[in-house]
Design goal:
The structure is a single chain. The protein is mainly beta and about 220 residues long. The protein has one domain. It has 1 helix and 13 strands; from the N terminus they run βββββαββββββββ. Strands 1, 2, 3, 4 and 5 form a 5-stranded antiparallel beta sheet that branches. Strands 6-11-12-13 form a 4-stranded antiparallel beta sheet, with no helix packed on it. Strands 7-8-9-10 form a 4-stranded antiparallel beta sheet, with no helix packed on it. The protein starts with 9 loop residues before the first strand and ends with a strand. The relative contact order is 0.20.
Length: about 220
C-alpha cells in the first residue's frame, strides 16, 4: 500500500424503523495519518433527508490506537438506546447492490438493481445515476481544492420503465462532508415499509485526507 494512500471507510447498514422513517448505518476504519480507529453511526430521518438530533455518533481512538473492536463497541453502546427505541435490529433491510471503489469494471456513476433478491427474479429493475455538480468551495477548504463538487441522483429506470426523475440535488455541500473531490454510487439498501418502500442509496464521498483521498459514506433516502 502506498505511503500516500488515504483511508476508505467500511460501511454496515444497521436497519429501519417499522414505518421506514428512520434508517441507521455505521462507517468505520483506521484514519490515515493518525493511525487511530474510528466508528461513526448515523441516524437518518428518511422523510426529511436529515440526521436525527444527536446524530451522528462519533468515536475515535487516540493517535496510533487501532483497536477497532473497542471503538466500535463504544459507538454501539452510545447508539444502543436509539437503536432499541426504533427496533432497528429487527429490520436490517436488504443490501441489494454494492459497487465499492475497489470494483473493477462497473461505472462509478450508474447502478442497476432489483429491489429484492430472489430467484426467479421478483419485479423489474431500477437504475440510479449519479451526476457530479458544481458547488461553492466550503470555507474550510479554500486553498485546498480548486473547485467545490456536489451531486445529483436520478432514477433512469423504475420498475423496468425508462425514467428521468431527479430524486436528490444540492446547491452546496455541508461542512461535515469535509473537502469533497468526487462521488461514487456505491450501493443500495431497500426496505418494504408498510406505507411506502424505501431505497437508501449509499454514496461514497471522496475527500481530502491526511495522506491522500479518503472515502466516506452518505446514505440518501429515495422513494421509488
Amino acid at each position: 500500500m502506498s505511503a500516500s494512500a488515504g483511508d476508505f471507510a467500511q460501511v454496515r447498514p444497521i436497519g429501519f424503523s417499522l414505518d421506514g422513517k428512520i434508517f441507521a448505518y455505521e462507517e468505520f476504519g483506521i484514519q490515515d495519518g493518525s493511525g487511530s480507529a474510528y466508528s461513526n453511526i448515523f441516524f437518518i430521518d428518511t422523510a426529511k433527508d436529515e440526521y436525527l438530533p444527536g446524530s451522528p455518533i462519533r468515536v475515535q481512538a487516540p493517535e496510533n490506537d487501532s483497536s477497532l473492536r473497542r471503538v466500535r463497541a463504544e459507538a454501539a453502546a452510545k447508539a444502543s438506546p436509539a437503536i432499541a427505541h426504533y427496533s432497528l435490529n429487527d429490520r436490517p433491510g436488504q443490501l441489494v447492490a454494492l459497487n465499492l471503489y475497489s470494483e473493477v469494471g462497473p461505472a462509478a456513476d450508474t447502478l442497476r438493481y432489483y429491489a429484492f433478491p430472489a430467484e426467479p427474479r421478483v419485479g423489474q429493475p431500477y437504475t440510479l445515476r449519479l451526476t457530479e455538480t458544481p458547488a461553492p468551495v466550503p470555507a474550510s477548504c479554500e486553498g485546498l481544492v480548486e473547485k467545490g463538487v456536489g451531486f445529483t441522483l436520478a432514477f433512469a429506470e423504475k420498475s423496468g420503465e425508462p425514467a428521468d426523475e431527479i430524486v436528490h440535488s444540492e446547491e452546496r455541500t455541508p461542512q461535515s462532508r469535509g473537502c469533497p473531490t468526487g462521488y461514487r454510487i456505491a450501493g443500495v439498501v431497500t426496505y418494504d415499509a408498510p406505507q411506502q418502500p424505501i431505497h437508501m442509496a449509499l454514496v461514497m464521498v471522496l475527500r481530502l485526507g491526511f495522506e491522500g483521498l479518503d472515502g466516506r459514506w452518505l446514505a440518501v433516502p429515495l422513494k421509488p
